[in-house]
Amino acid sequence: MSEFLPGRLSPDAVGGRVSxxxxxxxxxxxxxxxxxxxLVSLDADSLVxxxxxxxxxxxxxxxxxxxxxxxxxxxxxxxxxxxxxRSWPAPDDAWLGxxxxxxxxxxxxxxxxVRPLGDPGVSIDExxxxxxxxxxxxxxxxxxxxxxxxxxxxxxxxxGWTSDFKTVMQTATLASVRRRLVGVPTEAVRLSASPSAAxxxxxxxxxxxxxxxxxxxxxxxxxxxxxxxxxSAAPFAIGRAVVEVPWVGFSAVxxxxxxxxxxxxxxxxxxxxxxxxxxxxIRVWLEVMADNTGALALYESLGFTEHHRYxxxxxS
Length: 316
What we know:
The N and C termini lie far apart (52 Å). By secondary structure, the chain is an alpha+beta fold. The strands form 3 sheets. It has an 8-stranded mixed β-sheet, sandwiched between helices. Strands 4-3-2-1-5 form a 5-stranded antiparallel β-sheet, with no helix packed on it. The chain folds into 3 domains: 11-69, Roll (SH3 type barrels); 76-165, no CATH class; 169-314, Aminopeptidase. The chain contains 8 helices and 16 strands.
């Protein structure tokens, strides 16, 4: 939208968190006020911003004095951790205060670890004892998905818990990703509401009841694959997307080693971006292992930036 607000906001900002200083309608001449929240839409006449209380504020473009994209709020990491958790719904879960205990018979760390989303309501030692007992009952190791730099992370450091599967949570606006994928052909991408046997084969992490429950559990989930339609082999590439407006989360974007650097990952991403846009998503998240330099480079080229980091912590 540089043609509307030169040097301030662009169309790529839709879906991002913004701060807008405006003339306050109906107030004394010259009175200014700030509106901070998620930019839902933007055109030559107005901006629509969703505040943290979910209320929508319409700001006339003529009243805007200054506008800029701002970083995540202090609670944004925990809010996104909750969104991410719901995209991998564990069939067995429980709450201890605001600690979310999750189990899926060992299918994926994300569905088999505690997500501390706030105060557990008891001391940290009592909470960890409860966690250990809960997972022992399920014959699973106690594991905590801990946001780097959080108070829980510091407490686990002090107790000597190990830190594995270090991961970067990345985010972008859907508009910025979509713009970078303009022209990417998607004709070969097949979209479906459930994973085919070939999709599961390429994914390669299990096809039992728990796995299918986690993969297909969200209300709005889509699966993409690039297949050789002349054979029954596993797809060249796959991907998965879950929409929870305003978010869409991408996962399982994988390409066969023999078929890499041929544009398959971008084709999968492009098809899933269009699918998500049709369902109202305006913001994107995905998770990348911190040492996966190839994937990090791909997503950086698509406009993703780091939101926060986390790792899976276990008693030493």
